[in-house]
Specification:
mainly alpha, two-stranded antiparallel ribbon, 4 helices, about 85% helix
Length: about 100
């Protein structure tokens, strides 16, 4: 019995491919959303400044609301990824466990 797992076998296993598919299915849309939301503020202030400079609450404009929402969005996505990473970690444990049982 070897002390190191057979990484080649693991990389070719259906469980590992499922893990990569799960991670990709989560990371790609979340990253696309993050980038779109992040770049929306500078684009909107450049081309639609009149809309964002209107008051939202008292003297606070929509630009400030949107900028604050970016902090909330970043924290939310970080929390969401942390929760999802627990599932990914559990999948990794199962993959390694099944590989060591085969030896």
């Amino acid at each position: 019995m070897s002390s190191q797992p057979n990484w080649t076998k693991i990389a070719q296993s259906p469980q590992f491919r499922a893990l990569l598919a799960d991670k990709t299915a989560f990371i790609v849309p979340v990253t696309a959303f993050f980038l779109a939301f992040y770049f929306a503020l500078p684009i909107m202030t450049s081309y639609f400044g009149g809309v964002l400079n209107r008051p939202a609450f008292g003297s606070i404009t929509w630009a400030w609301v949107f900028a604050f929402a970016q902090f909330v969005m970043t924290w939310s996505l970080s929390s969401l990824y942390t929760k999802r990473a627990e599932r990914f970690d559990a999948q990794v444990v199962e993959i390694l466990k099944s590989e060591t049982e085969k030896e």
